[in-house]
UniProtKB/TrEMBL annotation:
Organism expressing this protein natively: Aristolochia fimbriata (White veined hardy Dutchman's pipe vine)
Molecular function via GO: RNA binding
Domain PORR: 44-381
Skewed-composition ranges (Basic and acidic residues): 444-459
UniProt-recorded name of the protein: PORR domain-containing protein
Region (Disordered), start-end ranges: 414-459
UniProt lineage: Eukaryota, Viridiplantae, Streptophyta, Embryophyta, Tracheophyta
Amino acid sequence: MKMHTVISRRSRGILLSNVSSAVSFFVGRSFSQSTSIPKKLQRVRDHGFDNYMEIHKKIIKVLKFQDLILSQPNQYIAISRLDTLARRFGFKQYESGAFVLKFPHIFQIYDHPVQRILYCRLSPDALRQIADENAALDAQIPDAITRLRKLLMLSNSGRLRLEHIRVARKDFGLPEDFEYSVVLQNPHFFRLFDADGPARSKYVELVHRDPELAVCSIELLREKEYREKGKDAEDIRFSFIVNFPPGFKIGKYYKIAVWKWQRLPYWSPYEDVSNYDLRSLEAKKRMEKRAVAMIHEMLSLTVEKKMTLERIAHFRMAMDLPKKLKEFLLQHQGIFYISTRGNHGKLHTVFLREAYWKGELVQPNRLYLARRRLDELIMMSPRKAKLDEDLVHFRRTAEDEECLQNLRRELVEEDQLGGDEDHGGDSVDSELDTGIASDFSDEGTDHEGTDDKAIGVTE
């Protein structure tokens, strides 16, 4: 009896040990699988960046109208001709007049003293903003040269297609004639040549690599964190600044996955990895993190720390970036933010989250501030603009003044009553009527759906 009890206890102990080892085996497998960053993550909207892009959509249209007006010989254009030429931008009939009336601080509408028809020109504030931006652009050409050198150093071969750089020239603060003023004027830094082949594409090549420039911006931030906050050097040696958007769900195992990923070593984007063996799993993980550092450094080289996903894709082959860039960036929503506002959701803009605080750059530059002045002019309410600023006096007679006073009175009365009646059926009056009615349509409108709970840019 005692012998049977000893055997049963011994067999029970063996069974329990087997069960515990099996449980630990399966738990260990599930733990290791769940502590890796998922390949597909649901995108969480950040209203601060999306609202920024809502203004940027208006900026794109305003810039098209500005270029159209400045291309005229006397830098003013008749409203009827503007309505015709604006159709190439996708505007329908009479929509261009309504659009320019929305921004009286940028566009001025006046009646021609001889032809007696309405003309449009840029306001003094808009001309001053353009002059300030051009002055800031010329002043930072030495910095633009350095940015272009570092951009070429990020490529595998030290060369990039001239057309790809031209498409993204505004992002990197390059002037319109950068091919001459930056590339050809600095032969000790750059070389321009035609590639062999049927396409005959032009390439910009770096003459020599400067080791002093091969320092990433994230490395400088790590050094700053180490010196100021005294963090552990081992924890921040390969880490990135992560700020998840509001409403992003962070689970227990996801925290562990991010902690493991932050400590994962990787090769610098400026390091040549062409002779490395990249077949192992560890090498593939390092290359994936290197791609994050590559995009991080590319965005750091831009003026506004943002760039469209389509322009980043132009450099994909030259910088060893993954094919599915959008899915890749969504894995790291704490570092980057992708906004789909613009061109009916077909345009994706990638922001560097750590560079922004409450919708503003943490370290603004002169060119960025000059461009933000245009945002301020767009944001100004049309209600504060006097009608006399739109209809500028140019040697009017008493009859003209009486007609304009009647027109002002009719527009104010119709705006107060909210009526839709037509004033005489004239095409010019219909343009004014459409513009006044649409001045207040964009104010106070919520541009976001009900599926998002995040508000503002909080770091």
